[in-house]
Amino acid sequence: MEKQIDRYSYELGVMDCFCEMVSAGLKTMALSHTFDSCQIRDQYLEAVEKLCRKYRVHFYCEDEAFITDLFPEELCRGKCCFIFYRQDETLSSYLDLKKKKAEWISQGDYEGSRRQEIARAYGKLLSYPDEGIERLMQQAGTR
Asked: What is the torsional sign of CA 70, 80, 66, 94?
Protein backbone atom coordinates (compact mmCIF):
# COMPACT_ATOMS: atom_id res chain seq x y z
CA MET A 1 0.00 0.00 0.00
CA GLU A 2 1.38 3.38 -1.04
CA LYS A 3 1.62 5.94 1.74
CA GLN A 4 0.19 9.37 1.07
CA ILE A 5 2.06 12.50 2.09
CA ASP A 6 -0.12 15.48 2.83
CA ARG A 7 0.76 18.76 1.13
CA TYR A 8 1.55 20.60 4.38
CA SER A 9 4.10 17.98 5.47
CA TYR A 10 5.66 17.85 2.03
CA GLU A 11 6.03 21.63 1.76
CA LEU A 12 7.45 21.84 5.29
CA GLY A 13 9.94 19.08 4.48
CA VAL A 14 11.15 21.01 1.45
CA MET A 15 11.57 24.14 3.55
CA ASP A 16 13.48 22.16 6.19
CA CYS A 17 15.90 20.96 3.53
CA PHE A 18 16.42 24.47 2.15
CA CYS A 19 16.97 25.93 5.62
CA GLU A 20 19.62 23.28 6.27
CA MET A 21 21.32 24.08 2.95
CA VAL A 22 21.33 27.82 3.69
CA SER A 23 22.63 27.17 7.20
CA ALA A 24 25.46 25.00 5.86
CA GLY A 25 26.43 27.66 3.32
CA LEU A 26 25.48 25.54 0.30
CA LYS A 27 22.96 28.17 -0.77
CA THR A 28 23.07 31.90 -0.14
CA MET A 29 19.32 32.17 -0.45
CA ALA A 30 16.50 29.69 -0.98
CA LEU A 31 12.81 29.90 -1.81
CA SER A 32 9.89 27.87 -0.61
CA HIS A 33 7.49 26.69 -3.25
CA THR A 34 5.07 29.43 -4.17
CA PHE A 35 1.64 29.67 -2.57
CA ASP A 36 -1.55 30.86 -4.23
CA SER A 37 -2.18 33.33 -1.41
CA CYS A 38 -0.33 34.85 1.52
CA GLN A 39 -3.11 33.51 3.75
CA ILE A 40 -2.16 29.95 2.74
CA ARG A 41 1.55 30.72 3.14
CA ASP A 42 1.01 32.16 6.59
CA GLN A 43 -0.45 28.85 7.80
CA TYR A 44 3.20 27.68 7.79
CA LEU A 45 4.51 30.69 9.71
CA GLU A 46 4.83 29.09 13.15
CA ALA A 47 6.61 26.02 11.73
CA VAL A 48 8.90 28.21 9.58
CA GLU A 49 9.88 30.25 12.63
CA LYS A 50 10.86 27.01 14.41
CA LEU A 51 12.85 25.79 11.40
CA CYS A 52 14.73 29.05 11.16
CA ARG A 53 15.59 28.97 14.86
CA LYS A 54 16.74 25.36 14.52
CA TYR A 55 19.07 26.17 11.59
CA ARG A 56 19.93 29.72 12.70
CA VAL A 57 18.74 31.28 9.45
CA HIS A 58 16.30 34.08 8.69
CA PHE A 59 13.18 34.20 6.60
CA TYR A 60 11.33 36.89 4.71
CA CYS A 61 7.66 36.70 3.79
CA GLU A 62 7.62 37.58 0.10
CA ASP A 63 4.12 38.77 -0.75
CA GLU A 64 4.80 39.11 -4.47
CA ALA A 65 7.01 36.40 -5.95
CA PHE A 66 9.80 37.85 -8.09
CA ILE A 67 9.03 37.40 -11.76
CA THR A 68 12.13 37.10 -13.91
CA ASP A 69 13.22 35.13 -16.95
CA LEU A 70 14.66 32.48 -14.61
CA PHE A 71 11.36 30.67 -14.01
CA PRO A 72 8.12 30.34 -16.00
CA GLU A 73 5.95 33.33 -15.24
CA GLU A 74 2.93 31.20 -14.31
CA LEU A 75 4.88 29.78 -11.35
CA CYS A 76 5.26 33.27 -9.87
CA ARG A 77 2.52 35.62 -11.04
CA GLY A 78 0.13 36.39 -8.20
CA LYS A 79 1.99 34.06 -5.83
CA CYS A 80 3.88 34.51 -2.58
CA CYS A 81 6.57 32.50 -0.81
CA PHE A 82 9.15 32.40 1.95
CA ILE A 83 12.76 33.41 1.33
CA PHE A 84 15.43 31.83 3.50
CA TYR A 85 18.84 33.45 4.00
CA ARG A 86 21.66 33.68 6.54
CA GLN A 87 23.04 37.19 6.10
CA ASP A 88 21.11 40.45 6.03
CA GLU A 89 23.15 41.52 3.00
CA THR A 90 21.55 38.71 1.02
CA LEU A 91 18.05 40.01 1.65
CA SER A 92 19.23 43.55 0.85
CA SER A 93 20.71 42.34 -2.45
CA TYR A 94 17.44 40.60 -3.32
CA LEU A 95 15.32 43.66 -2.51
CA ASP A 96 17.75 45.89 -4.45
CA LEU A 97 17.42 43.57 -7.45
CA LYS A 98 13.63 43.85 -7.32
CA LYS A 99 13.96 47.62 -7.07
CA LYS A 100 16.32 47.77 -10.05
CA LYS A 101 13.89 45.75 -12.15
CA ALA A 102 11.01 48.06 -11.16
CA GLU A 103 13.08 51.13 -12.07
CA TRP A 104 13.94 49.71 -15.48
CA ILE A 105 10.30 48.83 -16.10
CA SER A 106 9.21 52.36 -15.16
CA GLN A 107 11.81 53.74 -17.59
CA GLY A 108 10.55 51.41 -20.32
CA ASP A 109 13.98 49.80 -20.44
CA TYR A 110 13.42 46.25 -19.20
CA GLU A 111 14.16 44.26 -22.34
CA GLY A 112 16.82 41.97 -23.77
CA SER A 113 20.10 42.11 -21.91
CA ARG A 114 18.59 43.89 -18.91
CA ARG A 115 16.01 41.15 -18.44
CA GLN A 116 18.77 38.57 -18.66
CA GLU A 117 20.94 40.53 -16.22
CA ILE A 118 18.17 40.48 -13.61
CA ALA A 119 17.48 36.77 -14.13
CA ARG A 120 21.17 35.88 -13.88
CA ALA A 121 21.67 37.99 -10.74
CA TYR A 122 18.63 36.30 -9.19
CA GLY A 123 20.03 32.89 -10.08
CA LYS A 124 23.36 33.83 -8.47
CA LEU A 125 21.56 34.83 -5.25
CA LEU A 126 20.00 31.37 -5.30
CA SER A 127 23.52 29.90 -5.70
CA TYR A 128 22.78 28.36 -9.10
CA PRO A 129 25.78 27.69 -11.37
CA ASP A 130 25.97 29.62 -14.66
CA GLU A 131 25.05 26.52 -16.67
CA GLY A 132 22.02 25.95 -14.44
CA ILE A 133 20.87 29.54 -14.84
CA GLU A 134 21.09 29.30 -18.63
CA ARG A 135 19.22 25.98 -18.62
CA LEU A 136 16.44 27.38 -16.41
CA MET A 137 16.08 30.43 -18.64
CA GLN A 138 15.81 28.15 -21.68
CA GLN A 139 13.24 25.94 -19.97
CA ALA A 140 11.24 29.01 -19.01
CA GLY A 141 11.19 29.90 -22.70
CA THR A 142 13.02 33.17 -22.23
CA ARG A 143 16.23 32.29 -24.10
From this structure: negative
